[in-house]
Amino acid sequence: MTNFAADRDQRGRYPQIANELNAMAEVDQAMRESFRNGAPWDFEVDRKNTKRLKEIIEELGN
Predict the structure, then answer these.
(1) Cα–Cα distance measured from residue 29 to residue 35, given in angstroms and rounded to the nearest whole number
(2) How far is Cα 20 from Cα 15, in angstroms, rounded to an integer?
(3) Which residue in 23, 40, 41, 54 has a CA-CA distance of 20 to 30 Å to 8?
């Protein structure tokens, strides 16, 4: 998985957001792996991530 905050230079002007996106991606990928192993799909993960991504885009522009 891509780590957007692995290198300080790659985090750019928004290191906190890069860290937040990494955390969101980890939760998302863990949920998807659980789903592949028979767990039910967690719609709440998608809902929360979509909501937060829209907020980030609104905050930073598109």
Answers:
(1) 10
(2) 9
(3) 54
The two tokens of residue 43 are: 């719609």
From residue 57, how far is each of 9, 18, 49 by CA, in Å? 21, 13, 12
- Token pair for residue 26? 């980890």
Dihedral angle computed from the Cα positions of residues 57, 13, 49 and 62, in that order, rounded to the nearest 10 degrees: 20
Overall pTM > 0.85: no
Query: What residue type is assigned to position 47 of the chain?
Result: R
